[in-house]
Amino acid sequence: MSSIMPRLIVNRSGRRKIPPCGRLIEYREAHSPFQKLIDSQRKRYSFSGRGLADRIGVSQSTLWIWLHNVNGYPHPKSFKPVHLQRLSRVLKIPQAEISRALDASRHLFTPTEKPMPHEAFDALGRLIEILEHDKRHTVSRSYVLNLAKNLHRGAAIAK
Question: Do both 42 and 100 map to the same domain?
């Protein structure tokens, strides 16, 4: 007769729980304009996370994700216009103010607004700096040419 050893129950509380998809999702304290506005009003009216979630008709975990995700704004698939109306009604914040905070949190560049330009850098100065710190007495032509091409490419993007 073969005896089968029972599996031991081990304490796994120290390990992070990984979702089935294998992707770890990062969260942090409220930091975006939208998150700060909603969280401060929630605290002002002494709502718990669960209480506010019940009042606006979402799950507690959904509200928690809205207020703690790294992006700073809720995903458009989970945040509908009805949620905006309910948040406005429950927290006594005008819908326009919530919309402004939401747009500020996920600032998208429109065709009329150009993004901030890249910070310019001195490509020739960078090449000189690299060659000064290179400890070799001789360097190959292809090495210098490759450095110059890469720096020129980076300088062209920075404009």
Answer: yes
Q: How many domains in the chain?
A: 2
Taking the mean position of all CA atoms in its chain, how far away is CA 30? 12
Neighbours of 51 (CB within 10 A): 14
Domain that holds residue 140: 123-158
- The pLDDT tens digits for 58-88 are 999 999 989 988 888 888 888 999 999 999 9
What are the tens digits of pLDDT across the range 107-117? Answer: 655 556 565 66
- Whether 38 and 66 have beta carbons less than 8 Å apart is answered as yes
Widest distance between CA atoms in the chain = 80
Note whether residue 138 is domain-resident: yes
Q: In sequence order, which residues have a C-beta less than 8 Å from that of residue 74 and are 6 or more positions away?
A: 34, 65, 66, 83
CA–CA gap between residue 17 and residue 32 (Å, rounded): 26
In tens, the pLDDT along 13-53 reads 556 666 666 666 677 788 888 999 999 999 998 999 999 99
- Whether 37 and 101 have beta carbons less than 8 Å apart is answered as yes
Query: Has this prediction a pTM greater than 0.70?
Result: no
